[in-house]
Amino acid sequence: MAKAAFKPQRAMYSKVFTYDYWMESTGIPIRRGYYVEDLRKLELGWWEERGCMSAFIQLAGQEGVSAARVTEIPAGKTIPPLKFALDEVVYVAQGRGLTTIWYDNGGPRKSFEWQQHSMFLLPHGCHHQFSNMQGDRPARLLHYSYLPLGMSAIPDPDFFFNNSHPTLVNLSEEELYSEAKMIQQSAESNPYGRTVFWYGNFFPDMRAWDKLDSNARRGAGGRSVSIMFPNSEVFAHMSVFGAQTYKKAHRHGPGRVIVIPAGEGYSIMWEEGKEKVVVPWHECSMFVPPNRWFHQHFNVGGSGARYLALHSPMQFYGHAEKVEDRAKDQIEYPDEDPWIRRKFEEELAQKGLKSLMPDEAYTNRDYEWSRAMGKR
Question: Which of 289, 309, 349, 354 is deepest in the core (most CB within 10 A)?
């Protein structure tokens, strides 16, 4: 039986996009709201066209900008191959397996193994296929891409999936899935203060990644890593901060998917002047700060926490364009709502813990966190 043609409806000034109509047309679950408590427990549905269990995730703040979905690979099985026209980042929420990629030009196939908390890029235009190397449990993958933007420009799913147009890429030239390399750039070339980033398309374990630099601007003695993928405008960063501390509130543009590789805590998100939303998180939670909403991350566990942010395109970065205005995008500890500190201390007290936030941080805007505190 032939597949029915996809005919999205359109209306002037509508915030329902072609991607939204396409999601609905698949018939699989769509998770909405502000967060997913655990990607490993997300309700899935059978996607006949893909031959696997899957679900879309479209949280507040993703609409029209970024796509996320979860794919499940049954124990010991291989799911059908797929060719996708866009770069796609994959984060392993659960399991251990194998990915094989190849191109239309008859070049060699490339296979690589992954495990829980691995992250890798599927380059645009490649065929890829996933296999579960464990025979006793399913594997779950989180996929992230800019597909909503693509479908707004070209409202035809067949253009993006299994397109017969050949992609001429030489795998040996790309050095696909080799070890990531550190790249240094001048401060002048990056207005957001990042001078070191890691360049690669396979990161074996984001829970254990320890190549981190100081990120004093956000507080809590935090450290971070900036990540760029080869020949791609998709990028990411991960922040790590100490037990019983919390980061400064800040805001930016829409579409950034945040995944928790390790830690226990919560985040608070709010549109300026409006009610606050509390997002609890632990390993394999996911959430998205909506456009220009302040958000703040709190570690209420006894060990370090880390969050991985998959960024939306630079066009949606959302920071103030002038250096002198960037203070409007961050709230310093002395300026925050007193409720923020009270809630944090109450949450810790319920666990028999105390805040490790230094008192001086609440009175001195120039307080400098020690590296030792950031490593606790």
Answer: 289
